[in-house]
C-alpha cells in the first residue's frame, strides 16, 4: 500500500483530530498513513524519510507553536542547518476544509514517473527563499501555500460531490426565508436529503469509577510543561464605568515571595477551572452526580480498532470525577464533527439521531458552522438539546481536549512595582448556547471576576476603608516560554505602540519601565514614544487615562493619539477620530519617518480578527503613500520589518 508520513502538533486537540481523520480515511483511498505526533521524534526520522510528508499543525497564543512542536521548531530554527536540509521531502500542507485535495495531491505524486514530480513545490520554495537569505520568504511562502491549496480545490470543482453540495447550498439559501433551522430541527432540503456522514470514530477509552479514598487534590496534579506559582491577588480595580459596554478589570498579583520574574511585554498563563455550576450540570446530565468524588481510572479497550490508541496525558490517574471536569477538560470546547458522529450511536430518539447526523454530514455543513461552531456550542448544550443522548464517560474523555491555561499580557514593570505583577482583562460575555438564554461568561475571565468580587475597588484610586480588608484570594500562574514582545535593547530607538482597549496593557508596562530608566539615567538618550490608543467612549472606557496623562506630562510619552469609536461630535467640535488605524494614517509622515528613516519599532497589541488586520492595511497605505511605491512593495517593506523584529504583534 502507498505509504505517507503524517505528523501533527496540537495544543487543544483539533490538529490531532484532523490528522486522525486523515489517517482513517487514508485506507479507503488506497493509502497507508504512518501517524505520529511531532514530539514522538523516536518514531520517525525526517533526515532519512523518503515517503511524502503531510503536516497538520495548529498555532497557540500569539502564533506560537503548540507545546508538542516546541522541540521540533527549535531544531529547525538552527541557523547552522544547510538551506536544503529538508529538500528531499515532499510536503503537502493541509488546512481544513481542503482535506479532500490531499488525496488528489498524493495520487498525483504516486502516479508520477518514479514519484519524482513535486506535489506542491512548497519545500522547494522554502529552500530557495530561506529566511536566511530573503526577509520576505515567510510572507511569500504563506501566500504560495494558500494558492496551492486553492488550486487543488479548484481542480476538483467538476466532481459530482462538489456540484451536489453547491446545489444543496443554493437551495438552502432560497428556502432560508421560509424556514429558520435550529440546533435541534432542520427544514427542507436538508431534512429530506440523503446524507454523507463521516465514518464512526472507533471508541478506545474505558473509564472505571472507584470509591473515593478521601485524599486531597491540588492543581499541581494538572500536567504543565512550565513551573507553576501560587500567588495571592493583592488588589483588583474596575477600570471602566458601570455603563460601559465591556467591563475591564485590573488585577495585581503579589509575587514577592516567589522567584517568578518578568519583563514588560511578557505574557504569562493563568491556570483556571471550569465553572462549578457547569460541572454540576454536566455530571447531572451524565447521571453521575452521586459519584463526583469517585476516582477515575482509564484503560484502552482491548477490542479497539483505533490505530495508536493512547491514554490522554492531561488526565491524572486516579483523580476524582469533580477534579477531572473542573481542572482537566475543556468542557466549553466546540464539539468537532467526529464527536457529533460518535454521539449519534448513543442517541435513542430517531429524530434526534437524524439531526445529529445532519450536523456532522457534508450536506449539513452550513448548519454546523452557524449553529455549532459560530454559536460556540459545547457538550453540555448539546446534551441538553438532545435528551435521549446518553454517552459513556469514556467517550467524552476521547473527544474533550485539555483545559488550557489562559495567556495574559503583563501590564506593569517590576522596576515600577517591585514584587507585583499587574494584568488587565475584559470580562468576556457571549450568548447562551441553550434555550435558557442566560449569557455565558468566559471560562477564565468569568472565574477571575467572581474571585475578586470581595476585594474589587471601583474605578477610583481610593483604598478600602479600615477594617474592610478582605482575605486575598489566590490563583496559579506559569510563565510563557516564547516571550518576544520587548522594548528595543537600544533605548534611543523610537517606539510606536498601537493598543486599543485592553491591548494597551503591555504598553503601560513599557511606559512604567521607561520612566524608571530615565530616572536612573538622567543624561541618557531615549527615543520618542508614540501611543495610539482607542476605546468606545471617552467617559466610560478610557483605560489608564490619568496614568497616560502623567506619562505625557513627564515627557515619557511623547505623542498620545486617542480614538473614540462611539462618541459623536459635540457642537462645533471636530468629529473624533474613530479608530487607531485612522490616526495612523492621519500621521502617516511621522509614522513612515520613524519606521523607515529612524530605525524605529512598532508594536501592535489586541484583537487579531479586525484591529490587527486594519492596522496592517493602514501601514501598507502609509508606506505606499510616503515612499511612493506600489502596495506590493509596501507589503514587502513591512515583511522586512517583521523579519528584523521591528514590527511586533501580540494579538489574539
From TrEMBL:
Coiled coil: none
Record flagged with keyword Glycoprotein: no
UniProt GO molecular function: [methionine synthase] reductase (NADPH) activity; flavin adenine dinucleotide binding; FMN binding
Protein name, UniProt field: Methionine synthase reductase
Species: Camelus bactrianus (Bactrian camel)
EC number: 1.16.1.8
Cofactor: FAD; FMN
Residue intervals of the Flavodoxin-like domain: 4-148
InterPro entries cross-referenced by the UniProt entry: CysJ-like_FAD-binding, FAD-bd_FR_type, Flavodoxin/NO_synth, Flavoprot_Pyr_Nucl_cyt_Rdtase, Flavoprotein-like_sf, FNR_nucleotide-bd, NADPH_Cyt_P450_Rdtase_alpha, OxRdtase_FAD/NAD-bd
Recorded superkingdom: Eukaryota
Amino acid at each position: 500500500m502507498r505509504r505517507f508520513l503524517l505528523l501533527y502538533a496540537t495544543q487543544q486537540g483539533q490538529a490531532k483530530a484532523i490528522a486522525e481523520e486523515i489517517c482513517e480515511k487514508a485506507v479507503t483511498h488506497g493509502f497507508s498513513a504512518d501517524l505520529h505526533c511531532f514530539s514522538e521524534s523516536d518514531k520517525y526520522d525526517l533526515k532519512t524519510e523518503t515517503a511524502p510528508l503531510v503536516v497538520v499543525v495548529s498555532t497557540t497564543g500569539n502564533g506560537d507553536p503548540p507545546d508538542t512542536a516546541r522541540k521540533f521548531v527549535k531544531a529547525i530554527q538552527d541557523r547552522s542547518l544547510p538551506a536544503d536540509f529538508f529538500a528531499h521531502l515532499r510536503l503537502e500542507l493541509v488546512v481544513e476544509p481542503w482535506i479532500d485535495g490531499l488525496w488528489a495531491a498524493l495520487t498525483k505524486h504516486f502516479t508520477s514517473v518514479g514519484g519524482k514530480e513535486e506535489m506542491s513545490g512548497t519545500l522547494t520554495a522554502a529552500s530557495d527563499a530561506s529566511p536566511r537569505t530573503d526577509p520576505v520568504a515567510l510572507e511569500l511562502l504563506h501566500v504560495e501555500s494558500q494558492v496551492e491549496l486553492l488550486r487543488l480545490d479548484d481542480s476538483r470543482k467538476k466532481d459530482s460531490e462538489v456540484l451536489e453540495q453547491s446545489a444543496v447550498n443554493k437551495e438552502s439559501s432560497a428556502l432560508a426565508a421560509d424556514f429558520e433551522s435550529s440546533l435541534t430541527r432542520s427544514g427542507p432540503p436538508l431534512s429530506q436529503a440523503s446524507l454523507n456522514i463521516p465514518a464512526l470514530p472507533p471508541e478506545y477509552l474505558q473509564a472505571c469509577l472507584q470509591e473515593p479514598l478521601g485524599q486531597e487534590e491540588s492543581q499541581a496534579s494538572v500536567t504543565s510543561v512550565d513551573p507553576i506559582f501560587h500567588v495571592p491577588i493583592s488588589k483588583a480595580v474596575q477600570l471602566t464605568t458601570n455603563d460601559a459596554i465591556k467591563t475591564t478589570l485590573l488585577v495585581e498579583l503579589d509575587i514577592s515571595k516567589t522567584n517568578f520574574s518578568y519583563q514588560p511585554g511578557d505574557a504569562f498563563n493563568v491556570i483556571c477551572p471550569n465553572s462549578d455550576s457547569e460541572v454540576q450540570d454536566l455530571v447531572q446530565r451524565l447521571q453521575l452526580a452521586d459519584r463526583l468524588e469517585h476516582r477515575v481510572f482509564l484503560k484502552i479497550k482491548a477490542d479497539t480498532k483505533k490505530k495508536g490508541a493512547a491514554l490522554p496525558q492531561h488526565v491524572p490517574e486516579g483523580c476524582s470525577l469533580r477534579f477531572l471536569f473542573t481542572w482537566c477538560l475543556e468542557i466549553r470546547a466546540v464539539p468537532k464533527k467526529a464527536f457529533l458522529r460518535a454521539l449519534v450511536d448513543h442517541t435513542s430518539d430517531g429524530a434526534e439521531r437524524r439531526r445529529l447526523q445532519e450536523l456532522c454530514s457534508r450536506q449539513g455543513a452550513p448548519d454546523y458552522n452557524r449553529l455549532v461552531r459560530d454559536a460556540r456550542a459545547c457538550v453540555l448544550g448539546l446534551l441538553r438539546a438532545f435528551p435521549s443522548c446518553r454517552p459513556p464517560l469514556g467517550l467524552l474523555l476521547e473527544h474533550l481536549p485539555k483545559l488550557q491555561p489562559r495567556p495574559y499580557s503583563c501590564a506593569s514593570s517590576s522596576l515600577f512595582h517591585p514584587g507585583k505583577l499587574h494584568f488587565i482583562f475584559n470580562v468576556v460575555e457571549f450568548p447562551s448556547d441553550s434555550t435558557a438564554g442566560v449569557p455565558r461568561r468566559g471560562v477564565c475571565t468569568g472565574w477571575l471576576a467572581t474571585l475578586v468580587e470581595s476585594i474589587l475597588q471601583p474605578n477610583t484610586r481610593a483604598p478600602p476603608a479600615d477594617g474592610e480588608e478582605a482575605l486575598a484570594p489566590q490563583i496559579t500562574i506559569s510563565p510563557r516560554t516564547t516571550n518576544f514582545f520587548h522594548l528595543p535593547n537600544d533605548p534611543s530607538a523610537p517606539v510606536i505602540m498601537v493598543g486599543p482597549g485592553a491591548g494597551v496593557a503591555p504598553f503601560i508596562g513599557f511606559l512604567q519601565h521607561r520612566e524608571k530608566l530615565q530616572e536612573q539615567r538622567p543624561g541618557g538618550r531615549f527615543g520618542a514614544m508614540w501611543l495610539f490608543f482607542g476605546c468606545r467612549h471617552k467617559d466610560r472606557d478610557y483605560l489608564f487615562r490619568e496614568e497616560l496623562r502623567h506619562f505625557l506630562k513627564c515627557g515619557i510619552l511623547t505623542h498620545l493619539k486617542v480614538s473614540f469609536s462611539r462618541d459623536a461630535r459635540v457642537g462645533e467640535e471636530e468629529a473624533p477620530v474613530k479608530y487607531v488605524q485612522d490616526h495612523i494614517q492621519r500621521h502617516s509622515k511621522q509614522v513612515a519617518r520613524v519606521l523607515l528613516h529612524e530605525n524605529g519599532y512598532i508594536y501592535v497589541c489586541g484583537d487579531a480578527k479586525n484591529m490587527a488586520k486594519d492596522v496592517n492595511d493602514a501601514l501598507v497605505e502609509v508606506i505606499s503613500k510616503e515612499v511612493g511605491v506600489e502596495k506590493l512593495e509596501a507589503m514587502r517593506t513591512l515583511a522586512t520589518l517583521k523579519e528584523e523584529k521591528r514590527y511586533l504583534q501580540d494579538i489574539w
